[in-house]
């Protein structure tokens, strides 16, 4: 009994020490220190867009051009995969789009708590992604490089442009960092062609990023241990590839390290931005960077209260706001030929509107559908009606009360059938307004999961495979499959780049649509 009591005391003591080391101030101070390193690397190649790998990477810079979602679990040794639900094609388009920048490429920021130099998302997931895309592009270009009499003049012209703009030797080999074992490299290599087939069969618009990428994608790795001679930073013209520079923001020597400034003593935490629910206390990356110096200078004793004050002020501000927001349009080159994708959008135009809080509303091509988080002045965003899937009933800024529907849908972790129960009402509301040509915004708490799944159900139920509203005619004539659902999700994620639908909610959508009788 005495030994059990002693062991429990040691356990409790170790947990207390860990909690103190992982305090809110330690986390924020560590993030701020690592962000200085990220900023220094970003300044070496200022033309390249900076992209945050959600969610951890979002903490390490004040401003990002975009974000992406490469999961470390897709690169785990016993779980190697290429997930067609997380294609991140917008990253390839951003890296290859030299029309809005002088040079192609991008930088991706992430971090890890495990004391490693790089997370598995950077060691394996992204290298797998670049290799699969490169080989898919090579296959696509090989197909269009066929005897002239097989193609129309437009396709012949497009093929000539493609082939002349690409290098004579397109590198589609697998590039992994040196610390990945040869046995694992061989295992990944043996699956590449299978993953390429999955990408080609998914209906992804390979032609869009093939037309933009003049050189093959290739990852480069930079951490705090990387030595870069400032007078020997390589020039873009010396590279025969489109660089995807992977920045691991945190130091990897120790998980906890005692540090001292002129005023305060604190513990450095590697990968402090990870698992924000366990330490952030409602603080978001945007709110942190808007008040960074107040928080850093407050010290360990006052930091928690400062955060609580900022979070509450932000909550009140959101409840009362209704500001107008500028519109930002990104228009890559339009293709004149059709790809083999069945769910082909009529334009590569990505329309995003953002307010002064940095959040975005994503319009899905020409479907009159949008995905966003709650709390917008929808009238300012040209939305005619709103479907609110958040638990909290948001103050609607639309004058017509019938143009707003609140469905308090719970996350699948708390209610496995909440989304499925509410989909009939959501589809009825969407059908009522979309058939009149009105613009519908679907929102949820974060604009990443439930609203995405509701939009997916609307796309499948009320639109045909070309993305044209048909009042559900094509849906009634076909039996929905998981492949069909994956194709529509790829189309949706092409516009809503923040989309991160959970498996539980996607399962509810499929179960509903597979047995729909509405």
TrEMBL record:
All copies of domain Rit1 DUSP-like, residue ranges: 404-513
Record-linked InterPro entries: Prot-tyrosine_phosphatase-like, Rit1, Rit1_DUSP-like, Rit1_N
SUPFAM superfamilies registered for this protein in UniProt: (Phosphotyrosine protein) phosphatases II
Highest taxon of source: Eukaryota
GO biological process: charged-tRNA amino acid modification
Molecular-function annotations in GO: pentosyltransferase activity; tRNA adenosine(64)-2'-O-ribosylphosphate transferase activity
Organism: Lactuca sativa
Gene3D superfamilies in UniProt: Protein tyrosine phosphatase superfamily
Protein name, as recorded: Initiator tRNA phosphoribosyl transferase family protein
Rit1 N-terminal domain ranges (all copies): 17-311
């Amino acid at each position: 009994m005495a030994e059990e009591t002693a062991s429990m005391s040691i356990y409790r003591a170790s947990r207390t020490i860990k909690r103190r080391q992982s305090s809110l101030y330690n986390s924020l101070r560590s993030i701020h220190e690592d962000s200085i390193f990220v900023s220094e690397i970003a300044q070496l190649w200022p033309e390249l867009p900076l992209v945050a790998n959600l969610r951890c990477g979002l903490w390490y810079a004040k401003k990002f051009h975009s974000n992406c979602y490469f999961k470390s679990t897709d690169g785990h040794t016993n779980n190697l995969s290429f997930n067609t639900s997380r294609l991140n094609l917008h990253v390839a388009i951003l890296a290859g789009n030299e029309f809005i920048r002088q040079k192609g490429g991008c930088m991706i920021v992430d971090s890890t708590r495990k004391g490693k130099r790089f997370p598995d998302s950077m060691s394996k997931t992204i290298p797998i992604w670049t290799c699969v895309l490169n080989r898919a592009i090579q296959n696509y270009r090989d197909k269009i490089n066929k005897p002239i009499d097989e193609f129309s003049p437009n396709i012949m012209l497009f093929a000539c442009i493609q082939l002349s703009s690409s290098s004579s030797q397109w590198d589609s080999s697998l590039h992994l960092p040196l610390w990945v074992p040869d046995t694992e490299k061989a295992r990944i290599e043996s699956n590449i062609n299978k993953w390429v087939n999955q990408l080609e069969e998914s209906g992804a618009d390979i032609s869009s990023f093939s037309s933009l990428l003049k050189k093959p994608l290739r990852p480069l790795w930079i951490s705090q241990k990387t030595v870069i001679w400032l007078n020997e930073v390589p020039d873009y013209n010396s590279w025969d590839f489109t660089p995807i520079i992977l920045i691991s923001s945190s130091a990897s020597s120790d998980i906890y390290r005692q540090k001292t400034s002129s005023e305060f003593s604190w513990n450095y935490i590697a990968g402090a931005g990870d698992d924000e629910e366990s330490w952030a206390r409602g603080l978001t990356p945007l709110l942190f960077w808007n008040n960074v110096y107040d928080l850093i200078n407050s010290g360990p004793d006052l930091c928690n209260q400062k955060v609580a004050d900022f979070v509450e002020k932000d909550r009140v501000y959101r409840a009362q706001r209704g500001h107008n927001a500028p519109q930002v349009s990104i228009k890559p080159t339009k293709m004149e030929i059709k790809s083999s994708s069945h769910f082909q959008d009529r334009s590569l135009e990505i329309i995003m509107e953002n307010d002064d809080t940095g959040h975005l509303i994503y319009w899905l091509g020409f479907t009159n559908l949008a995905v966003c988080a709650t709390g917008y002045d929808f009238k300012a965003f040209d939305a005619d009606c709103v479907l609110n899937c958040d638990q909290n009933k948001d103050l609607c800024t639309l004058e017509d009360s019938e143009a707003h529907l609140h469905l308090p849908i719970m996350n699948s972790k708390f209610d496995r059938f909440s989304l499925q129960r509410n989909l009939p009402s959501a589809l009825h509301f969407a059908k009522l307004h979309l058939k009149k040509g009105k613009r519908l915004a679907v929102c949820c708490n974060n604009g990443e999961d439930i609203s995405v799944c509701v939009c997916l159900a609307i796309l499948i139920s009320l639109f045909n495979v070309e993305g044209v509203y048909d009042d559900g005619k094509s849906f009634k004539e076909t039996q929905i499959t998981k492949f069909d659902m994956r194709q529509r999700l790829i189309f949706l994620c092409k516009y809503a780049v923040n989309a991160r639908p959970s498996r539980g909610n996607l399962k509810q959508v499929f179960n509903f649509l597979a047995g729909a009788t509405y």
